[in-house]
Amino acid sequence: MKVGLYPDYGVTQEEMHEYGYQWDGMLPMKKETAERLFNMGVPICVLNENDTDNPATDLAAIEAHTGLFGVEKPEWFAWLETEKAREYYSARYAFCVSVDEGIINDMGPIDRKFLDGFVASQYYERIAIEGFLNLYARSNPRTLSRPYRQAPEPGI
After folding, report:
1. How confident is the model over 95-118, as pLDDT tens digits?
2. How many CA atoms lie within 13 A of 81 on its CB side?
3. Among positive and negative, which fits the CA dihedral 14, 17, 19, 25?
């Protein structure tokens, strides 16, 4: 099952495996993303270092856990079909654009060097969000009036 848009670009499947959780049917995320998505109705799992997981039944379960979280791929794909997902990713896209433009236009080259990893992560997230929103726009032409522009290559 190919994933075009991940819930959290700040953690990888490899990092999830190093943490101790091995099942590739789970998409990993950090606490901040888990809290945000849980509040939007995404079924979040608490991942344990012993290769087990349990569903987060409330926000307190997420707040109490110090490790990684995840969402099963079929649950993620189902959520991406919702209007709430499109609204969230439209806002997230605007955030990515603002961050990119702020870094490119308002920071000097020395300051930008400290943000190389962040810029790369933002770039890949932004490209994935553009693809997601453009795919939706093509299948529903009345809902989005313009295609999202392609982000410039990260090249600080």
Report:
1. 777 766 655 556 666 565 555 555
2. 6
3. positive
